[in-house]
Each structure stands twice: as structure tokens, then as C-alpha cells.
Amino acid sequence: MNLDAKIPSGPVAEAWDKHRFDLKLVNPANKRKFKVLVVGSGLAGGSAAATMAELGYDVDCFCFQDSPRRAHSIAAQGGINAAKNYQNDGDSVYRLFYDTVKGGDFRSREANVYRLAQVSANIIDQCVAQGVPFAREYGGQLANRSFGGAQVSRTFYARGATGQQLLLGCYAALSRQIEMGAVKMHTRTEMLDIVVADGITRGIITRNLTTGKIERWAGDAVVLATGGYVNVFYLSTNAMGCNVTAAWRAHKRGAGFANPCFTQIHPTCIPVSGDHQSKLTLMSESLRNDGRVWVPAKPGDQRPPSQIPDNERDYYLERKYPSFGNLSPRDIASRAAKEACDDGKGVGPGNRGVYLDFRDSIQRLGAEVVKQRYGNLFDMYQRITDENPYELPMRIYPAPHYTIGGLWVDYNLHSNQPGLHVIGEANFSDHGANRLGASALMQGLADGYFVLPYTIGNFFATHKPEPITTDHPAFREAESEINARLQRFMTIGGSRSPESFHRELGRIMWEKCGMARNRAGLEEALQKIPELREEFWNNVKVIGTERSLNMTLEQAGRVADFLEFGETMCRDALLREESCGGHFREEYQTEDGEAVRNDDDFAHAAVWEWKGPNEEPVRHQEEMTFENVKLATRSYK
Amino acid sequence: MNLTLKVWRQDGPNDAGRLETYDAPDVSPDMSFLEMLDVVNERLINEGRTPIEFDHDCREGICGMCSLVINGVPHGPQRATTTCQLHMRSFKDGDTIAIEPWRAKAFPVVKDLVVDRSSFDRIIQAGGYASVNTGGAPDANAMLIGKEDADTAFDAAACIGCGACVAACPNASAMLFVAAKVAHYAHLPQGQPERDRRTVKMVNSMDAEGFGNCRNYYECEAACPKEIPVKFIGNMNRDFIKAVAAGNEG
């Protein structure tokens, strides 16, 4: 497997400028001759599709939702980072770069991260020009806040709906290109495979979710912007439709899957309330700016929170990490919550929850100010739990939120599979083993607005394969494989719904490959998942027809892919014998429970190569070198 | 609690459709409305019956994918709440709940409770944007925008495009949806260069899609899960008249 990252030589601060000059260009008049298939219409896919169409490329964009505006980027609450230093508090491109590499626990690529920090400022300019209504000060300038473990205020936000406003900006840009005929948008259309002919990605196969029609699309490049795979846990903060299918199919056609075990568990979500639960709801991390996290100091203390005096409360983040306190990074805060609950100090149903308390902020600032800052989040909490957070502390617990692993890409966001580019959450490159708050929106838009539109030109200018049509045997074969698979779902005639398999897989993944992992548990999962998969293919029940809208059938396909992917994820977690970022292996910790990273043996991305249905996948490595940010143990004490 | 559901079933756009009755036993008050439907569907699948199709995705009230007219009210009885965020504690044991799709000529039924809202996308495509390409934007703080204007623009931009306003309106008017987008840009300097064109083009597109006219029932505001105020419709009407009077008809 060729894992040449194509990182430009020379100092990291000059790499992107140098690279942009070295990239070959496509004559403006020739751009319309290149067809780009963009799968996904979230921040990464939508911005890439719009920007490439503006440049003159012929773009088709696909999404499974009924409108590109509904992609799950829309649910991001907190904000987007940019190294603007508007607050004059010492921020810089270098500091954002440094924080991100360190926050990623030294498992990301320095050059990619530096570029991300550089273009972060352009993103804010671009979004403001589009009319994104960011929060502002009375004087008319943009407001910033400190967010998710950063000690400078570099986060731009739009109340608690930053993702929505950024996505609507991007959707507006995309809509404009659709109106101009430069983008053809295909909604309610799910990509089910990529087509590879003579080793080169030449197109995709889709299913029209309304009519069931299977269609072939040929293109000069395929761009996957299909998001993350955290729904492998079943319960997560992702939308119900988020899935690994596109990435997994690309993987099975040759694309390396990097660091699948790196997932982000978000510390502040509403705890599970019962077996019926279908998804978990995130409470923005910004709440930790004014809320204090605590549990009763005494295990099993069942008193209501108001009756527990301060000296019988354990503000464990403030105690363990005095310099970062409640703003400790996500992986640290999540693990600390789990530890508190494992010690029997958890609160609420099943004792899996900790308090996030605004009592002191309300006393200090007044309820009105707290309402201004977090009103919509408080309302959402009350709608879901029926408890009033102005009077009672919120109960929160960590939940799977984002995936930091993904398809391997080089510096050009091109995978090892020729012709296939991967952007946004679907790739692996920028966050290492842990993503900092407000960095996901930044990365999605960086890739789509400011990186891929440059690098894809170089790809077209340097790759000139023979023209191909959808009559090529590779398209025919891919389509007939899809049809056979759909037929199989319809004819198994078992007794269990796809949903029930998904729940069961999710339980295995959360228990054995969740916030804390160990060898025995992972080996157990590696036994159980193939058994569950076997049962699925013999006992799943899908009703109706494949020739019309059939959401159970859609779900069956997605669950089938999760059942394969979960195994690779556990295998990756088993072989990464260290604790770093969101990957915590219980065998590798200090006496006081802090992660022990192993840079000698694991300062690399593990990249998996698919070898076939009954073969063990092969693990490759891309070494990560750190020339600018010195390898050091993260400490937030 | 135990509930009876009367659910609209329709095999496709050309099918007549009918209400069918289902039992929903052992419903927990902590379930969301859609989780209650998940449980009903799970049972239908186990019994070999076709599950009820309904749109949903984020289940946290922001993607705008979920719909459902519940007991005659779009998104159900709780104000400022999407169906996915509505919880069963809003109902009581023994209730009969009628569940229907959005009903409007411009939102044809796809199947059961799923409707086609692509007309909304086409209205945005007609002009719901600021025509700026990527790149070349000036520094974000070069343009000062007062907090009040930014806040009002946000209030309008908070629309999630779910279509409840249309479903609630006796005329199936999309005025609140269109007015919210028009107001978002009208309150920002970035929206000024195309203000007239945008308003006229979006209103014309709305008419062409077959949405009805506003008769000031204000049902849209009451149904809107984001509480977008009807005052934006008045603002849009003024902008429209001004644009037409000035001869700027898109």
C-alpha cells in the first residue's frame, strides 16, 4: 500500500504556499470537461461542491437526506476556531497549530495541521461574506469565546447553532451553483459503491431512495465527504442516518482505513434514560465555561443535589486538573466522568451521570445573563429531561460524538486509491487521537473551501486516464453486486429487524471498544462481532420491496457495513498498545489513571488494507514525525 | 401508558391513502415521539407487516427532516418543539393520537408520512444567497454589523426548513419560510446588493411552486418550532412592493 503523504519539504510554515505554487493548474476553459462526483453535502461536501463549481468544474453532488441543508454538520452547536487574534490575547496561526497537534496527542500530521490553522482565518472571512450571522459585540465586531480546552478566545459562534448557520451558508453557496446549472444535486440518493476500473476510481453506484432505482455515475474524480462512523456504537450524538457505508465500500475497493479505533467521546451529553433510547443529545461544551462539574464525594449518596453541601461534593475536574479545571479537553473530561461513575458516585438513572451545575454562575452573573448565553441549550435540556437546569444541576454523561479515524489521505486529501479524494470527518488527517472543540467545523470547511479545490486541479493536470463510460464492465459488475446484495436482504426472511442487530452491535462496541478498552474485552468483541454478523446474514428481516422507499432496507445495508467495520475498529484498538487521546487502553495508564502514550512504537497512523471477506486485514503504518511541536506528555494539571 | 394511533398510510404519490389504527402499548413517558414510532415499527416488522415510513434524522430539533401532523397540529402539541423533541409525557394513558403527513399541494406525499419538500430547495435556489464566490473575502471585522442587526438576522436564519408553517396554514402558504430567508439577508449589509432581486425571485418561485397566499391567520408562527415571528412576512411584503415599484423585478 502506497502511503506517501506527499508532505512538501522545507519549513512547515511555508509548506502550503510552496505547495500551492508547485501544484499544476487546469486551464479555466478546460475545467468544465472534468466531472467531479461529490458524495455528501455537509460542510465539507457542500463547500467543496460549491467551490469547485465556481471554479468551473462539472459537479454532481449526492446526499441521502431530502435536502443538502440537512446534513449532520447542521447539529454542531459550539463554534468554529480561527487564528484571528481578534481578542488580542496572544493567539496566532502557530498557537492554533501547536494546540491542535498537542490536543491530538501527537498522532496527526504536522503539515496538515499547520495548513488547517493557516486557512482558519480565511474561513471566517468567507462565511461572513456569505452572510453567516455570527455573534457580535455592540460595537459591531465579531464576538469570540474560549472553548473546549483552549486558553485563548478564538472560537466564533452563532448562539448554540454554529453548525447550522455555517451549513446554511454553504447550502446557500451550493444552491446558487445548482440554480446556475453548475452543480447537479441528487437528494435522497445513497452511494452504495465506488467503481474501480484498472485500479482507478471511475465512478459510483447509487440507489435512489424514493424509487429504489440503481444508477451508475462516471466521473473524473470521486470525492467522499460522507462524515464519520460513530453510529457503530448505535447510541451516539450523530443523526440516525449517519453511516460508514460509503467509506467502508471505498475501503473494500482499495482505500486504506486509518486509525479506526480513534473516536471522540463527548463529555457533555444527556444521559441514557431507558432501553427505548434511539440517540443521545449533546449539550454544547460551551456550558463548561460557566458550569461546574461535580459528583457526590461519597459513593451511593442518593440525596438530591441541593441537599449536598459543598464540602461533600467532589468537583473532580477542578481537583485533578487545577489549571484547566472544567475546561479540560474532551478525552480527559470524559474519562474522568466514567471514573467517577465507576467509583459509585454517579447520579441519575443507572447511576451513569455527573452534575453540571450552574448555581454559582447564576449567583455571580444572574439568571438573565446565563439565559442569554445558554438559553436555547437549557430549553433543550428541559424538553428532553423534564428538569429545569436553572433550579437543578444538569445531569450529563459522555457519549460517542465524532470519529477521528477515517480513510487515509495524503497532503492533497487524495486517498491511496487513485481518483478517490476524502474530505471532512470522513478522512483521518488533522485531529490525531483527539479532536479539540470547535475544530471539526474548521476542518470540514478548510477541506472544502480552501484545500481540495486547489489540489484536485493538480490531480486532473497530472492524471489523464483513457475516457470511460458507465457501460464499462466495472460498472456493470459493481451494479450487479449491489443488486444481488439488495435481493439477499429481501429474501433472507429472518426474524429480527436490522435495528435490533444495530443495537446489539452498539452494546458490544460501547462496552468493549468505548471509553476504556482492554485486551480481554477487545478479544471478546472480535469473537462476538463475526458471530453477530453471521446471524444477521441468516436472520435479518426486511419487509416490503427494494423498488420503493424502504427505510428498513436502507438501515439493513448500513448495519451490514457496520458489522464488518466494527471488527476492524476493535482489531485496531487491540493492536494499538498504548493510551493516547480518545483511545484509552486500561493496560497503559499511570498509577493515578492518566494515559501512557508509547511514542517509540506507536507514533504512527495505523492504516488497514482490506484483503477479502474471510482474510485478516493487513496493518500498515505511516510514521508521524514531529519537528515543530516537541513530543511531550500532555498535562492539563 | 397505552395509546391508540391512527396513522396515515399511503403506498405512493398516486395512492389514495387511508388512516389505519395501531395499538401502542407500554409507552414510556420519557420516550420521544419518534422513539414511540420506532417501537411500533419494530413490532410491525416482527409481525411481518410493513413498517410506517416517516422522515427523521438528527433527532435533536435542528436538521428539519422530521415532520408529522399530530392531532391536527404540525409537530404536535408542544410549542417551539419539533416532533423529534416532543416527548410522550405530553400525552396521557388511553389517548388516541392521529398522525398525518404535511398536507400541501407543493409537498406531495412520497409514502405514508414522508413528503417531498424539494420545492423549498428550489425557492432558495431562486435567490436565497449572497452571490459571492469562495476566496477574496475581506477581513471579517472590516464590516461592522450592530449586535441588534446580527441578532435579528440570526432570529430569521434560525429557520430549519421543516415546512411546518406550510402544513399549519389553511392556504398552505410558504410566506413565513420565504420571509425568514429574505429577512436574514435584509438585516445584513451582505444582503443589500441583491435585496430587491432576491425578494422578487424568491416570491415568484414560491408562487410557481403552488404555495398559497398569506391571509394573516398566524398559524405558521404558532407551529414554527423555531418561533420565527410573522413580522418578517410584513417586512417581506414591503420589500416586494418597493422592488416592484422600482422596476427591479428580478
Q: Would you mind describing this structure in some detail?
A:
The complex is a heterodimer of chains A (637) and B (250). Chain A is α+β, with helices and mostly antiparallel strands and 637 residues long. Among the domains of chain A are: 266-400, Flavocytochrome C3, Chain A, domain 1, CATH 3.90.700.10; 477-597, Methane Monooxygenase Hydroxylase, Chain G, domain 1 (Up-down Bundle). Chain A is 37% helix and 14% strand. Chain A has helices at residues 12-22, 43-55, 93-103, 110-130, 162-179, 245-252, 316-320, 330-342, 359-365, 367-385, 440-462, 473-492, 498-513, 519-539, 551-575, 599-602; strands spanning 35-39, 58-62, 80-81, 155-156, 183-186, 189-197, 200-208, 214-218, 221-224, 257-258, 263-269, 292-296, 313-314, 354-357, 394-403, 406-407, 420-422, 604-609, 618-623. A five-stranded parallel beta sheet of chain A has the order 5-2-1-9-17, sandwiched between helices. A five-stranded antiparallel beta sheet of chain A has the order 11-15-14-12-13. In chain A, strand 1, helix 2 and strand 2 (58-62) form a beta-alpha-beta unit. The radius of gyration of chain A is 24 Å and the shape is globular. The model of chain A has no long low-confidence stretch (mean pLDDT 96). Chain B is α+β, with helices and mostly antiparallel strands. Chain B folds into two domains: 3-111, Ubiquitin-like (UB roll) (Roll); 117-245, Fumarate Reductase Iron-sulfur Protein, Chain B, domain 2 (Orthogonal Bundle). Chain B is 34% helix and 11% strand. A five-stranded mixed beta sheet of chain B has the order 2-1-5-3-4. Chain B has a two-stranded antiparallel ribbon with strand order 6-7. In chain B, strand 3 (69-70) and strand 4 (73-74) form a beta hairpin. In chain B, helix 3 (147-157) packs antiparallel against helix 5. The radius of gyration of chain B is 20 Å and the shape is elongated. The N and C termini of chain B lie far apart (55 Å). The model of chain B has no long low-confidence stretch (mean pLDDT 97). Chains A and B meet through helix 2, helix 4, helix 5, helix 10 and helix 11 of A and helix 1, helix 2 and helix 3 of B.
